[in-house]
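Researcher: I'd like a candidate sequence for this fold, 135 residues long. If you have to choose between options at a position, lean toward the conservative one.
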């Protein structure tokens, strides 16, 4: 079976064959992550694990919005939205922009757009997930 070029290991793409039976993770760094990176990455995924925050990110992936517009679109109180935005800002998933007395929020950068898009693609390609403890 031929593997797509983007998924081949360095030995395979350079013309050499990988050792028989060897598996190689593509794109994995040779050294383990630093403890600070592990903690930051785990915190980012923890923050992404809340359905309300995912809904906020979804809305912000479409356009920049203020708290009142987010609250209206999501059927939440402004206080609840502000609380969630504070968590999203602390992990640099969203960024504020002040315009006079109003503050507008957007996804922080293209990495967040890509992370959100890849996560969505991942869950949609497999269909509904089975919850732990349920069958």
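Model: Candidate sequence:
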């Amino acid at each position: 079976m031929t593997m797509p070029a983007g998924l081949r290991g360095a030995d395979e793409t350079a013309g050499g064959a990988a050792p028989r039976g060897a598996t190689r993770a593509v794109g994995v760094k040779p050294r383990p992550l630093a403890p600070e990176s592990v903690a930051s990455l785990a915190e980012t995924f923890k923050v992404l694990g809340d359905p309300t925050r995912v809904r906020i990110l979804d809305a912000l992936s479409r356009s920049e919005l203020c708290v009142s517009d987010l609250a209206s679109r999501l059927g939440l109180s402004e206080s609840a939205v502000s609380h969630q935005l504070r968590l999203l800002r602390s992990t640099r998933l969203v960024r504020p922009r002040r315009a006079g007395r109003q503050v507008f929020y957007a996804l922080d950068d293209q990495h967040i757009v890509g992370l959100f898009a890849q996560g969505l693609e991942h869950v949609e390609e497999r269909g509904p997930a089975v919850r732990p403890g349920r069958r």
